[in-house]
Amino acid sequence: MKFFGFIAVVVVGTLLLVATGDFPGWGNPHSPASEGQVSGFYIEQTVNVTKVPNMVTAVLADFRGYDTMFETVVIFIAGIGIIAVLRTFGDTAGKASDYPEPDEGSDIIVRSTCHLMVPLIQLFALYVVAHGHHSPGGGFQGGVMLGASYILLALACGLPVAKRRMGERKAIVLAATGIIIYAGWGVACLFFGGNFLDYASLDPVLPGDKEMARSHSMLVVEIGVAFTVTAIMFAIYSNLATRGRLEKGL
Amino acid sequence: MIEESYLPLLAWMVSLLAVPAILLMRRSPNVREGTTFVAAFVKFALVLAMLPAVMAGGVLRFSFGEILPGIPLEFRVDGLGMLFALVASSLWILTTLYSVGYMRGLKEHDQTRFFACFAVSISATIGVAFAGNLFTLYLFYEMLSLSTYPLVTHHGDKEARSGGRTYLSHLLGTSVAFVLPAMIYCWVKSGGDMSFTDGGFLAGKIGPGDGLIVLLAFTLGFAKSGLMPFHSWLPNAMVAPTPVSALLHAVAVVKVGVFCILRVFTGVFGIDTLKDLDITTAVTYIAGFTVITSSLIALTQDNLKRRLAFSTIGQLAYIILGVSLLSAHGITGSAMHIAMHAFGKITLFFCAGAIFMATGKKYVSQMVGIGRQMPVTMTAFLLGSLSIIGLPPFGGAWSKWYLFLGALDAGQLMIAAILIISSLLNIAYLLPVAVNALFRQPPGGSDDIAAVGIREAPAACVIPLSITAVAGFILFLFPDLVFDLAQLLISNG
Amino acid sequence: MELLAAGFIEDNIVPKFNYWIYVILMMIGLYAMITKNNLIKKLIGMAVFQTAIILFYVSIGVKEESGIPILGHGQHHEIVEEGKPSGEVITKDEFANPLPHVLMLTAIVVGVSTLGLALAISQRIHGSFGTLEEDEILDQLRPGGHD
Amino acid sequence: MTEHYPVVILMAPLFGALLATLLGRGRQVACWWTALIALGISALFAVGNICAVLASGEGELRYRMGGWHESSGYEVGIELRVDMLAALVVAAVTLVGFVNTIFAKTRVTGEMREKVSFYYALNQLLIVGLCGIVMTNDAFNLYVLIEITSLTSYALIAMGNRRAALSSFNYIIMGTIGASFYLLGVGYLYIKTGTLNIDDIRGVLQSGNLWGHASITIAFILIMLGVWIKMALFPLHGWLPNAYCYAPSAVSSFMAPLMTKVMVYVMLRVMLWLFGSEYVYSSGHVWGELIIWMSIIAIVAGSFLALARTDIKKMLTYLIVAEVGYMVGGAWLVNGAGLAGSMYHIFSDAAMTFCLFLAASIVILRTGDHRLTAFNGLFRRMPLTMIGFTVGALSMIGLPPTCGFFSKWYLISGGIEAGHWAYVAALLFSSLVNAVIFFRIFERAYFGNLKGVADEQFPDDRDSAPPLTLERVPCSMLIPLFLAVMAVLLVGIYNNTLVSWLKAAMPPL
Questions:
Q1: Does A250 lie at the interface with C, CB-CB under 8 angstroms?
Q2: Which residues contact D339 (CB under 8 A, 6 or more apart)?
Q3: How many structural domains is chain B composed of?
Q4: What pTM was computed for the model?
Q5: What is the complex's ipTM, to 2 decimals?
């Protein structure tokens, strides 16, 4: 196997290195990818057609919003996939002793720091979600932070504490809701006569003109993304950490 | 003169429609067999109904759908197809009668399955006879292979299983390995046309090199014809109940094989094309070899049905031999031999079954003097043997005569010699059976026979075999119908 | 000879430094995925492998003398509030290409999801086989083993 | 309304999956109905989609997500493109999904227990992914959707027993390598062309005359390698047999017919639309021959490996490996017949594999035996199931009028036209091996010894005729089998129509 692996690596590596000889230099502003029509359009027109200064957010949530929707679905699949694979319902009493009894947040310093940190993290996460239009950020980044805040809680105070705030059922509902928001927003566009995810067609119900409708809609779908990511991040952690028994945390 | 008609379709479908009825009536055997009889008679009547039009030189055609680009499912009734269909459908009636007697007499199991599969097989046979293009031909050819498998393995014991395995592996294997690619090659070469035409649809579209390969692929691929080296399925298929051996392995299945090869010669290539390409010598030699070898093997067989099977292999090779000579007389002889051999050989098989039913004897060596006990059966056996050998006044004489003429026409003296030698061998392996049975004392002495008296098989078995034996004689006196249908092949081709 | 090598490095490796790095990283990952016996090590290889691709894509997006693809407040103001056509305010060379970043956001998400699922599955494997070494697992599955 | 059909096809199962998740455990019947209705809608619209494509003048529908139109000749958004081939594949996917959901009803309760809602959710998301793959016209979006199908199938397979988990892990490793190679190839194309739209990439390759560039060649090799891993082309097939064999039966009966076939579709898509037939076939003299030989090896090896198996499902999975060889070979014969055969075989193989897996699942479920001995005497015990199995098997062997015959017909005629006799011989060889494999089973099923007496014919049958574990086969399993049998026959009988549609979708060679 080692020999076979070595051969494979050498062959593929050589192929890849040969190809690099053909590439435009690193950082060359005149490479097709940098100078091409598509990137030119994104750079020059984004603000015109969407009024969003952060081009990455605009490309993510609007031009390639269809991709991003499936990206969210990927997260969702990972979450429910892990639950489906790992989760053991019911009869686990016999195995619970596999894990050492964790020290459930008996340390007051850790606990207090954590209680102090969590609201700040969450606040910042919300800012990242909401301010994705103007600065680096967006639903994924904010969602991960939100999820991390729950994970921190679980680490510091034990899983039951975190579960009281984000139970399994709640996480699943939240995750599904996120996608429903995203995809539902896309379907709503159909009812206003546009194509799927054509936010401009929602302009009759949103404040501002067509371009602003796009800008607002992006916020909506980013919020949907944040829902899903938050819930799934925590679900992944809690299942992986307890082998799907969701009783004791690390 | 092509005429659109539903008759070919109906004739094909009758026996297929009978299948559900047979299955439904499995609780009441009389109704079940009644259904079979009705279907058999209706089928024969439908085939007869088409006869006048075909005799007048017409062709009945029915096609529907376009299964593959340019290839519909097509029925086409011409002289050759008519001849074959007549033989098969008329003998089905007799075989049905015989099977009723045989199956009930031996109290066989699974009789419903038997009759149902039999009906499907006959449908497939008629389908082959009336097939209008190569694809349709292949479709029904495969249908026949599959539908006869349960019949061959009817007994379900070890012997039947291994026989069935040989049967399917030879028939399916060769058809998939040889016929399928050859057929697709023809399709590609002919530009998507596969309808049998009188001049052959490949005429002028194929060279001698690939022509030879395609021809050999077809000849060997239609292994139902029993041509060596793919002949061994036939002796092994003799494990089947005798009615199956009689109708399918003396008439329907094996004749389908030679019929397909005849079609390839006349409908795919066309006799004239084959003459131009000069590629049939190989087929002639294979067939000639088969004729002699199988006759020699038949001499050594003690099991009567196996002996008859090898005899069949030899007789089928005559037909292929005749057509491969490409002379008018040879082809006429081949076509006639399909019918003549069918009547002769089915008689012999019926007799073998009757002997088995009445006495339980399977081996030739046990049958010495048995004629005292079964005079009618053994007389019929003698008549059938004479017809197969080709002695007047029996139908087989005509076809052999034309085959011989064909060999002379083609200037192939060696082939003529083969025919003569093989006829002598026929005498050597068939006549002793009948003569010993009729004219020699049974080993146990005359008291034994007197004690037993005349004990024939049931009437349902004896009547069909008498009819077919007499039919051999009638065909000598009135060969016109067969001859005319065979002539149609020449006049059109 | 030395000159040749130096020339090769100068022409091929230096301007495409990132691409060379990504290939090396990727091959490390691939080698680990193929040859490692421990399932978790395989997953580490997988993570390296996927990260290498992310590095490659991000390298595509690099453009010399350009900034991140977010409009400054002034530019945004000029276009949105004052209604100047964006062509006058923005030049293409000023900003990097946003597309590779977006694509990689997706690829990262996919990578994380795959990794998470793979970890969950390896936990199940550990739960039912009691080991994460591939050869030991295969030993158990052999007909002779205690399956 | 017609133009939105593709969205409906995708969204119905997506929302169905979300709803199934929300319903949660304990509401199995409701989950089943959700899945059934969602997939029913999807299938209905997929069929409507075929009509819409037929009705449209250009023979293809384009749908721009987000309403983004092209800018100076390049698509800035993501575009869907549905031609006849895509519409048919989508219809096949949704129909198989729908029928399989009927089949799954009784099966999943036993196999998944409390995770039924997750099964339905993941299964529907898998269908979303497959449909998305088929319809998208964006190279990167294709990657995302491939990953959706991969992730769902990893999870679905791992829901089986412990061996399933292990095979799922191997599948993850192989699948990730495959998908990453694809992603890398797309990156190479992007760096050279600056666009991700499949048509635009082809346009730039053509207009910029980039065909000779080493990086494009390597991109092609990478993408092909990735796709081959995903479709399990021999010798990259290692993950497939175990994964499909140990997966829960409701999962394998869906994935076996579709996953590899959709990846074959992706391969055709990459060859003919992403790079263009001109590029792939013109410089193909080097690799074209090589790939056909690879496919020949795949066919022969797959057949042999199948012959050696005594486990029903394992045997069937190796047959899939052989069938993949058919399609890859057909696609590289560089003629219309071969390509049509390859495309047609996507459908015919889907139909017959579906049929065989359904029948095999029923047999395994009823007899509780997963070896070939399960078939002993089954013609008498389970005549209906065996008829279904027989039809599927005859199709695998390639007897008319089943669809397997016609796909062989087109593939062989393609091989003859191209003069590639070894490929023709491999197809015939595989037919013969299939005949041996299946008649071995028929013999057991037909004569099989029910009395438990050792027979010298089948010495390993001492414990034959296992006691039935199920009193009778529920209708919800027989109806799907019946539908699959109909599919095998109908795809066969209407091959002419199907192929003429497919030929219309083919770009000029």
A1: no
A2: D268, D330, D331, D333, D414, D506, D509
A3: 1
A4: 0.91
A5: 0.88
